[in-house]
Amino acid sequence: MSASLSRPRVGVWLIGARGSVATTVVTGCAAVTAGLHPPTGMVTETPAFTGSGLPALSDLVFGGHDTLDCPLPKRAEALTAGGVLPPGVATAVAAELAAADREIRPGGPTPGDTRSEAELITAFAGDIRDFVHRHELERAVVVNVASTEPASQGPHAPLPASTLYALAALRAGCAYVNFTPSEGMHHPVAAAEAGRSGLPHAGRDGKTGQTLLRAVLGPMFAQRALTVRAWSGTNLLGGGDGAALADPAAAAAKNAGKERVLADTLGTVPEGEVHIDDVPALGDWKTAWDHIAFDGFLGTRMILQTIWQGCDSALAAPLVLDLARLTARAHETGLSGPLGALGFYFKDPVGEGPSGLGEQYEALVRFARSLGEDKEGRR
Ligand SMILES: NC(=O)c1ccc[n+]([C@@H]2O[C@H](COP(=O)([O-])OP(=O)(O)OC[C@H]3O[C@@H](n4cnc5c(N)ncnc54)[C@H](O)[C@@H]3O)[C@@H](O)[C@H]2O)c1
């Protein structure tokens, strides 16, 4: 990605770099930088973030790991055909896609991989360090946007790939963001290492659709003293995420975050479940229904139903860019540990913080202001 050499540049190392979200991140960043599209959906481009000292979009350099070898321009072509990317954009930013593609290294473990966990962590960390050195980057943020893994297998099972990458990020001296429900830095081994590292981290699982609505509606029911009797939800989606979530163990990891939002905002866990159905024909387009049964005055029974129809990668990509910029700046100002103030972005936030979206937004803006007040930071 082209950028002024006089300004410090920041790396964004994407785990799952050839996926839908990652491809939309790289394409979108280049398109907005070139003035081809406005930064719709990027909270960090709104006035409240002007003085926060965040790296400019034009100063971000992309690389990453993936276990697939489909070239990024081809992925962008497929996303254009699916209506995720607008026509012409992938062609207009072909040079930036090709540059990011050259920085993608083979991930792992792949089937038949004989490397030990220690060898994998060393290899991943080496790739990240090499990227930072070759591009003379000020720092890099590692962002997990790889396929959702099955829910935790317990502390004695082999480390999940997401945790190997999280440990590699720490080894390479990078801040870390987990945009997925996978274990990553939540694994006890990584959590202990993160505590010692002095590096900031954020996560987990981006809040882009159904859970975003739940974080608004949950506080509404609680503040109006209405009793929620049941809250049920169904999601239909395709694409790589739909296929990964067809595995009940992976879906369980995802649904735990969706249910946490209700428990935190309502103070109780209402009856009802969340289902995720893989519908390959829908591609990246998701439909999420929620059915909320609640009691009003004198026990009068009522129902609210919501229908969310979104394009998942278009919802996620601006948030990934926001998170990379905020976490890089947090690292620059010397912050370490879980960044609870970024709970606005996540279903299952790390650290301390409120659960309703309104309060989460206020906490985020306060955090952004504090990043700007840091006198040590160089921006
Ligand atoms: N789109 C959203 O709104 C949204 C919201 C929250 C979370 N997420 C999460 O973001 C992630 C990415 O979603 P997507 O739609 O881009 O999925 P995708 O299937 O298109 O992309 C995932 C990529 O990860 C790669 N991958 C799998 N295992 C890997 C490994 N061990 N090492 C390196 N790469 C690996 C795959 O090859 C693929 O290219 C998912 O976990 C999803 O749950 C997405």
Automatic annotation (TrEMBL):
Top-level taxon of origin: Bacteria
GO molecular function, one term: inositol-3-phosphate synthase activity
A Pfam family it matches: Inos-1-P_synth
Gene Ontology biological-process annotations: inositol biosynthetic process; phospholipid biosynthetic process
Domain Myo-inositol-1-phosphate synthase GAPDH-like residues, every copy: 209-313
InterPro entries, per the entry: Myo-inos-1-P_Synthase, Myo-inos-1-P_Synthase_GAPDH, NAD(P)-bd_dom_sf
Family stated for the protein in its record: Belongs to the myo-inositol 1-phosphate synthase family.
Protein name, UniProt field: Secreted protein
Species of provenance: Streptomyces viridochromogenes (strain DSM 40736 / JCM 4977 / BCRC 1201 / Tue 494)
